[in-house]
Each structure stands twice: as structure tokens, then as C-alpha cells.
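Dataset card, provenance and construction

Sequences and ligand SMILES were collected as paired inputs. For each pair, a complete structure of the chain with the small molecule in place was predicted and serialized as C-alpha cells. The example below shows a pair involving S-adenosylmethionine. Curators did not alter the output after generation; any descriptive sentences attached to a record were derived from the structure itself.
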Amino acid sequence: MQLGKKVIERILAQGGYQLIRTKQTSLPKRPAAVSPDVQRDFVFKNFENLAAAYEYALNQIEGCELLTPNAMRPRLLTRLLGTPPSEAYYILTALGKTKWVEGDVCEFGVAQGETSALIANELASTSKHLHLFDSFEGLPAPTPQDQLKDDIFSLGSIEAYTGTMMTPMDAVLERLAAISFPATRFTIHRGFIEQTLRQSQNLPTQVACAYVDFDFYEPIKTALNFLDTVMPRGAIVIVDDYDFFSTGAKTAVDEFLAQANAVAPRYEMHVPDTRLGYFCVLTKL
Ligand SMILES: C[S@@+](CC[C@H](N)C(=O)[O-])C[C@H]1O[C@@H](n2cnc3c(N)ncnc32)[C@H](O)[C@@H]1O
């Protein structure tokens, strides 16, 4: 070591330099490990920032303030199950676009109510009523139009999905109470849609915006046929699982449109890039 030091000193001296020992300092300490809570806060802050930037960009594209900043929205977006945020933003912009269209808002296929809470939060500043339709008995038996396209739960057959996605209705009530959405502002229509639409007393008479997430052919077709009778011009309906999971969703939409647009165009359809999710957007002309 001493010999090495001497050699270095000699070399430095030849160049006119001198080796001087400074006060020994310890290496900077590594920051203490970040707690999971702090880490989660960071992740959420990053998501919140991304959501704000995305909303800003969407507003620029539309040329109007469709998405006004909303403190609760990012939290509700992170809680979604099965609805990716990219698709959720289509629901949110549809709500913004139909704010001044006469009528209420519906969700067909509610499950645990995470998307319902997201929608309800947007309705807080409006006078629109929220109608939620679900059997709370999970998926019904498939029809021949429902062929398994994507085995999302790896169950092996479409028949095996009967009864899956069952959630108690109380979970929805809890979700809406947790965001302080008043009970007077929403109606839960419990039951299989085919019966509900025949029996329910308080069905909406006008619908400005709807999210249809029943997964299977029969209930989707039933919901679309009902909506056709109550949606005014400018109303928007988003149908989830278009060309995904069961072939029934796409078949139901395609058949509905073929009939509705047979004489003159009554609906415009937009199918977003599948990187944003599998769904379609129908606007009544
Ligand atoms: C995919 S989940 C809905 C998810 C929910 N929209 C969300 O974003 O969290 C499908 C729901 O549709 C309901 N459902 C399916 N077919 C139905 C029918 N014929 N009548 C009523 N509800 C039905 C099921 O009970 C299930 O809760």
C-alpha cells in the first residue's frame, strides 16, 4: 500500500501535482427503504398525474371541457374490475357529451358496482337519475349465439360460466354510499332483464347514456331493443365485450344495428382500437 502510494506520489510530482489526504468521509447513506404505504402513494400520485394529462389531451381533441377535474375520479378509476381505464374514459366522455341530452343514465350489468360508482360520481353535478340493472345471480345460461371466444377464467367451456360473476346487491349499495351518492338519485332494478323490462314500475322513460355490460347475446339484445325505444337523438350507448369473451355480444350488436339502420342510418358505430379494450360506442343520429 505504502509502496503504491509512493509510486503514485512520484508520478503526480512529475506532473507538478501533489497527493493530499482530505478528511475521511463516510459514504452517503442509502435512503431508508420506502414503506409499502409510501410506495402506494407514489404509484397513485403517478396514476393521478397520468389521468390528469390524459384528460387534458382528451379535452384538447374534443375542443371542449368534457372532463372537468374531479378529485374522486382517479381513485374510482383505480378500483375498476374488468373495465380498463381506457374504456372507462369512453364512458366518462360519453357522459360528458350527453350532459345536455334529455334523459337518465343506465348501467346494464352492474356486478359489484365499481363502474356504477364511477358513473354516479360524474352524475353528482347533474340532475340525471342512475338506473342499475342486474339479476345479482351472475351470468345466465348461454344461448347458441354465445360461443366461447376468450376463456377469461380458464373454465374450458361457455356453459361453465353460468352463474359466475355473481355479486350481492348490498355490495353496490355500499359502494354508492361510500361515495355519498344519495339513495334518491338511483334505482336498482333487480332481476333478469327479460322480466325486469316487462314488470318494473320505475323504468326510465328517456335515456341519454347507457353502459351495457351483460356479456351474453340475449340480455344485450334485450337491453339494446329497450334502449332504442327511449333514447333521443344524441344519446350514446357503450356495449362492452364487443368481439371478446362470448361471440354473443358482437352478434347482438351487429344484428341490432342491421335492423335499426335497415331503412335509414339511425345509429353510428365506433369500434375503438382493441388496445383500448373490447367495446363499441353507438350514437343515436
Ligand atoms: C361483467 S358483469 C358486470 C360488470 C360491471 N359492469 C362492472 O363494470 O364492474 C355482468 C353482470 O351482468 C349480470 N347479468 C348477466 N345477464 C343478466 C341478465 N339476463 N339479467 C340481469 N343481469 C344479468 C350478471 O349478474 C353480472 O353481474
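Derived descriptions for this record:
The beta strands are 104-108, 130-134, 186-190, 207-212, 236-240, 267-270, 279-284.
The pocket of S-adenosylmethionine is lined by residues 81-83, 109-111, 114-115, 134-140, 165, 167, 192-193, 213-216, 219 (CB under 6 Å).
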